[in-house]
Each structure stands twice: as structure tokens, then as C-alpha cells.
Design brief:
Largest sheet: none
Number of helices: 2
Shape: elongated
Strand content: under 5%
Number of strands: 0
Structural class: mainly alpha
Radius of gyration: 20 Å
Helix content: 55-70%
Length: about 80
């Protein structure tokens, strides 16, 4: 099975848009998480929990992006069951 090859213009756009979309996405997650907690009656100091969860998610997905960029060009290995007989 071969890897998906994107045209250079799409690949460049994807790399350029990652960080703005990453930031906006996690900011949206923070707003949703915090407002849901406020609606559930949590105290205002719950903002620290929302910020820490959001920061962890941002860091983890950013590290995953770096790993994918570093190893994305490597050919994937497919697992094949052993032949019987």
C-alpha cells in the first residue's frame, strides 16, 4: 500500500494553517469546557482546571504534529499474518 501524495500547494497550505487552526481549536475547547463548567455550577476558580486540561491537550497534539512531521515520510510497515503450511 502506498502513501497518499498531496500536491505541493495543498501540503504547503496544510503546514501553514496548522498552528492558527491548532490555537483556535484549543481556544474554542477552553471556552466550551469553561462555560459548561460554569453552567454546571462550578466555582470561578475552576478556570485553572479548564486551562490545565486545555494546555495539556495543546502540548500533546503539538508534540504529535512534530512527530508526524519527523516520521511522516518514512514508509509504513504493514503487519502481515504468518503464512501457514
Amino acid at each position: 500500500m502506498s502513501a497518499i501524495v498531496l500536491p505541493d500547494s495543498i501540503a504547503a497550505t496544510s503546514k501553514r494553517l496548522f498552528w492558527p487552526l491548532q490555537t483556535v481549536g484549543w481556544l474554542g475547547y477552553f471556552i466550551l469546557h469553561f462555560t459548561a463548567a460554569m453552567g454546571d455550577g462550578k466555582p470561578l476558580r475552576y478556570v485553572t482546571a479548564s486551562l490545565s486540561v486545555t494546555a495539556c491537550g495543546f502540548v500533546i497534539t503539538s508534540l504529535l504534529r512534530q512527530a508526524i512531521d519527523a516520521f511522516g515520510d518514512c514508509p509504513s510497515r504493514r503487519w502481515r499474518p504468518p503464512r501457514s503450511g
